[in-house]
Amino acid sequence: MAVNTRTPLIAGNWKMNLDHLQAVAFVQKLHWTLKDAKHDGGSVEVALFPPFTDLRTVQTLLDADKIPFALGAQDISSHDSGAYTGEVSGAFLAKLDNRYVIIGHSERREYHAETDEVVAAKVQAALKHGLAPVICVGETLEQREESGPTAVSVAQLEVALEGVPSNADIVVAYEPVWAIGTGQVASPEQAQEVCAALRGVITDKLGEDAAARTRVLYGGSVKAANIASFMREPDVDGALVGGASLVVDEFAAIIRYQKHVGV
Ligand code: PGA
């Protein structure tokens, strides 16, 4: 088996929280908290996903203070430009130094009726503009009971990876819908089982090199108290964190998860 050289990724999905002024205070505090704690930068990649209206402000701050967090958006239009009121193009996101974009989050699938085909089109749009899609997949409780733990996520990822080249820079996030914002966290074994199945899909669709290189994250009620247990699993390469990414000390403790290993 290939040696795991994947850099862990801790991603903070702010959802519709923190305006641009609150965002500045948050990023500064997080940076200082990690600095004071002598965070050994480089061992973990940190990515922040603020609302669209914060992106320019956060980008300017990261740039001015040389803060080593990556920036990402929470959504992207499948179109490049034109008469699409309310949509945001990947071209605009790329100009603001975004490295990532979340695609197919269950809240978008559920509240905005995003189908697997829409998700696939957005993945193509992201890649076209040099953004790495963070492709979210996951099952509801009913789906888990009906078709088992892996079938829904596997099927969703298969469609999302349609037409993606084998050298594409992508991230996959397994987010069981029943664990998002509910406090009902998946067990590390449950997360591992699905993340391993998703890596199998990457192998089938994009080849072994891509599967060995691509980060597969777990998301759903991740906290400082449980992050280390997920990170011990061989196919979990990081976390997509919602609620706990809005609390500086909690998110900083998640980023410094190595300190919890073995405790
Ligand atoms: P949560 O959200 O950490 O609040 O459960 C995770 C997500 O939706 O990405």
CATH superfamily: Aldolase class I
Report the C-alpha radius of gyration, rounded.
Answer: 17 Å
What is the mean predicted local confidence, pLDDT? 94
CATH topology: TIM Barrel
Amount of helix: 40-55%
How many helical elements? 11
Oligomeric nature of the chains: single chain
Q: Which ligands, by name, code or SMILES, are bound?
A: 2-phosphoglycolic acid
CATH architectural type: Alpha-Beta Barrel
Number of domains: 1
> Roughly what fraction of the amino acids lie in strands?
5-15%
Give the tally of β-strands. Answer: 8
Strand order of the largest sheet: 1-2-3-4-5-6-7-8
Structural class of the helices, strands and pairings? alpha/beta
Output the CATH class name. Answer: Alpha Beta
Please state the overall shape, judged from the principal axes of the Cα atoms.
globular
Please give the largest β-sheet.
Answer: 8 strands, parallel, barrel
Note poorly predicted spans.
none
State the order of secondary-structure elements, H for helix, E for strand. Answer: EHEHEHEHHEHHEHHEHEH
Q: Could you give the distance between the termini?
A: 28 Å
